[in-house]
Amino acid sequence: ELLLFAADRHGHVKQIIRPALAESKIVISDRYLYSTIAFQGYGRGLSRPTIDSLNDLAIDGTMPDVVILLDLD
User: Fold this and answer.
1) Which pTM does this prediction carry?
2) Which of 6, 13, 39, 43 is the most exposed place for a label (fewest CB within 10 A)?
Protein backbone atom coordinates (compact mmCIF):
# COMPACT_ATOMS: atom_id res chain seq x y z
CA GLU A 1 0.00 0.00 0.00
CA LEU A 2 2.75 2.44 0.95
CA LEU A 3 4.66 1.69 -2.24
CA LEU A 4 1.54 2.21 -4.35
CA PHE A 5 0.90 5.62 -2.81
CA ALA A 6 4.56 6.61 -3.28
CA ALA A 7 4.53 5.50 -6.92
CA ASP A 8 1.30 7.39 -7.58
CA ARG A 9 2.64 10.50 -5.86
CA HIS A 10 5.83 10.35 -7.93
CA GLY A 11 3.84 10.18 -11.15
CA HIS A 12 1.60 13.04 -10.04
CA VAL A 13 4.59 15.23 -9.17
CA LYS A 14 6.37 14.41 -12.44
CA GLN A 15 3.37 14.67 -14.79
CA ILE A 16 1.16 17.32 -13.16
CA ILE A 17 2.78 19.38 -10.41
CA ARG A 18 6.23 20.12 -11.84
CA PRO A 19 5.01 21.02 -15.33
CA ALA A 20 2.43 23.38 -13.81
CA LEU A 21 5.04 25.01 -11.58
CA ALA A 22 7.36 25.38 -14.58
CA GLU A 23 4.60 27.43 -16.21
CA SER A 24 4.31 29.58 -13.06
CA LYS A 25 0.87 28.18 -12.27
CA ILE A 26 -0.50 27.91 -8.76
CA VAL A 27 -0.93 24.30 -7.66
CA ILE A 28 -3.47 23.39 -4.99
CA SER A 29 -3.58 19.81 -3.76
CA ASP A 30 -5.85 18.29 -1.15
CA ARG A 31 -3.32 15.65 -0.09
CA TYR A 32 0.42 15.24 -0.29
CA LEU A 33 3.09 13.49 1.72
CA TYR A 34 1.43 14.51 4.98
CA SER A 35 -1.53 12.24 4.30
CA THR A 36 0.82 9.27 3.97
CA ILE A 37 2.42 10.13 7.30
CA ALA A 38 -1.01 10.34 8.91
CA PHE A 39 -2.74 7.33 7.34
CA GLN A 40 0.06 4.82 6.79
CA GLY A 41 2.25 6.02 9.66
CA TYR A 42 -0.07 6.82 12.52
CA GLY A 43 -3.07 4.94 11.15
CA ARG A 44 -1.38 1.70 10.13
CA GLY A 45 1.69 1.90 12.35
CA LEU A 46 4.27 1.81 9.56
CA SER A 47 7.78 3.01 10.27
CA ARG A 48 8.18 6.79 10.00
CA PRO A 49 11.75 6.53 8.62
CA THR A 50 10.48 4.17 5.90
CA ILE A 51 7.63 6.52 5.04
CA ASP A 52 9.98 9.51 4.97
CA SER A 53 12.46 7.69 2.70
CA LEU A 54 9.77 6.70 0.22
CA ASN A 55 8.18 10.16 0.29
CA ASP A 56 11.60 11.72 -0.37
CA LEU A 57 12.05 9.51 -3.42
CA ALA A 58 8.51 10.15 -4.63
CA ILE A 59 8.54 13.94 -4.44
CA ASP A 60 12.25 14.50 -5.22
CA GLY A 61 12.37 17.83 -3.38
CA THR A 62 9.02 19.18 -4.55
CA MET A 63 7.63 20.67 -1.33
CA PRO A 64 4.70 23.02 -0.87
CA ASP A 65 5.24 26.66 0.03
CA VAL A 66 2.10 26.71 2.18
CA VAL A 67 0.24 23.97 4.05
CA ILE A 68 -3.25 24.58 5.43
CA LEU A 69 -4.43 22.09 8.03
CA LEU A 70 -8.15 21.98 8.70
CA ASP A 71 -8.75 20.55 12.18
CA LEU A 72 -12.39 19.54 11.98
CA ASP A 73 -14.63 17.19 13.93
Assistant:
1) 0.85
2) 43
Q: What is the CB neighbour count within 10 angstroms for residue 46?
A: 17
What's CA 27's distance to the chain center, in Å?
13
Backbone angles phi, psi at 57, to 5 degrees: -65, -40
Tens of pLDDT, residue by residue, the chain (73 residues): 999 999 999 999 999 999 999 999 999 998 899 999 999 999 999 999 999 999 999 999 999 999 998 889 9
How wide is the angle at C-alpha 45 spanned by C-alphas 40 and 51, nearest 5°? 50
